[in-house]
Amino acid sequence: MTTLPPPPHHGVILFAHGSRDPQWRAPIEAVRQHIARHQPQVLTCCAYLELCEPDLAQATRDLLAQGAASITITPMFLGTGKHAREDLPQLMAALRAQHPQVQFTVQQAIGEDPRMTALMADIACTPAHTSS
């Protein structure tokens, strides 16, 4: 599969639930750092529904301040539960009303992408590297 380069001034927001536990954010931040290393032309940040910051509105403002003209929201959920079905569409309606000049794209929950399904299956069936 050939991946097309993103348009200039494109932003990606990795949107996750959030947690009071600061260690919970590490995997989401690791994805952001991977994007920054491998696709530095993409403006990237994380946003959280609750319990930590930034929220989706602040992350959007941050990307716009960096020059983003279009933004893709990637829900970092394993499935399309209540947050992806109900909360995210409400948040997106507010963002589109506040920023009508911005082209927003919302991807499906990342866990529902067949590539992620295959990767999780591979991980589940591969012996883990453990330190005892």
Give the percentage of residues in beta strands.
Answer: 15-25%
**What CATH architecture label applies?**
3-Layer(aba) Sandwich
- Count of the separate structural domains: 1
CATH class: Alpha Beta
* CATH fold-level name: Rossmann fold
Q: How does the helix and strand content classify structurally?
A: alpha/beta
Name the helicity range.
25-40%
Average of pLDDT: 90
Organism: Simplicispira metamorpha
GO molecular function: lyase activity; metal ion binding
Protein name: Sirohydrochlorin cobaltochelatase
InterPro entries: CbiX-like (IPR002762), Sirohydro_Cobaltochel/CbiX (IPR050963)
Can you describe this structure?
This protein is α/β, with parallel strands linked by helices. The protein has one domain (10-124): Rossmann fold (3-Layer(aba) Sandwich), CATH 3.40.50.1400. 39% of the residues lie in helices and 17% in strands. The protein is built from four helices and four strands, in the order βαβαβαβα. The protein has helices at 26-38, 56-65, 82-98, 114-124; strands at residues 10-16, 43-48, 70-75, 103-106. Strands 2-1-3-4 form a four-stranded parallel β-sheet, sandwiched between helices. The longest helix is centred in the last third of the chain and has 17 residues, at 82-98. The mean pLDDT is 90. This is Sirohydrochlorin cobaltochelatase. It comes from Simplicispira metamorpha.
